[in-house]
Each structure stands twice: as C-alpha cells, then as structure tokens.
Amino acid sequence: MPVIKILPHPEYCPQGAEIRASAGTSICEAMLDHHINIEHACDMSCACTTCHVVVRQGYNSLNEPDENEEDLLDRAWGLEPQSRLSCQAILAQQDVVVEIPKYSINHAKENH
C-alpha cells in the first residue's frame, strides 16, 4: 500500500501528513478519506482545477494525464511540469510526495 506524503499547507494540512491508500485510488480520494479536505469543487469529475497538486516525488508512477486533464491544468494557479489534478492522479505501488499549492482558482469560494 503506497504512502502519500503531503507537504505542509497552512489551510488543509498545517503539519503535513503521511497517509496510506490502496493502489488504484486517486490522490484526492485518499486525502479526503484521511480528513485532508482539499478543495474539489466539481466533485472529482475532472471539470475544474481546485484539487490541483504538484507531485514532488513519484510522478512517473501515476497514470498518464489525459487530454482533458492537461487542458484544465493550463488554467491552474502555480502550474508546474509535475502538476496533476489530484482527482485524476491514480496511485500505483510507489510512494508519492505531493504539495498542495497555496492558491486555487475557485470562484465559489472567492464569492465571485
């Protein structure tokens, strides 16, 4: 069972965390299952960028992003080459390290 190390984030995970999840689980599902309440405004349907994470280690062990995810990531705040939508990033057997960006584009939360 792979380990997901979440780097500290002031709102969602101030101390950082290490959680375990079964292979085949999305990073988003795993975080939510462990009470790390990352935003997921589209209910994990790959229709927004609020669950954007940067995979600092283990990126190549995840499934390949599809075209829809890549198109959405182009709109994510703080996009990096190792960026993924956590709802679409499916764990394999390798441990991963993820960073939740400081900001996300969430119009509902920002009261627009």
Walk me through the topology.
Elements: E1 3-6, E2 17-20, H1 27-33, E3 52-57, H2 67-73, E4 83-85, E5 96-99
Parallel strand pairs: 1-5
Antiparallel strand pairs: 1-2, 3-4, 3-5
Explain the overall architecture.
- By secondary structure, the protein is of the alpha+beta class.
- It has helices spanning 27-33, 67-73; strands at 3-6, 17-20, 52-57, 83-85, 96-99.
- It has a five-stranded mixed beta sheet with strand order 2-1-5-3-4.
How would a crystallographer describe the biggest sheet?
5 strands, mixed
- The rounded Rg comes to 13 Å
Element order: H for helix, E for strand: EEHEHEE
Relative helix content? 10-25%
Q: Within the largest sheet, what's the order of strands?
A: 2-1-5-3-4
Structural category is alpha+beta
**Count of extended strands:** 5
Q: Into which percentage range does the β-strand content fall?
A: 15-25%
Mean pLDDT: 92
Low-confidence stretches: none
Apparent shape: globular
What is the number of helical segments per DSSP (H or I, 4+ residues)? 2
Cα end-to-end separation: 41 Å
As an assembly, this protein is: single chain
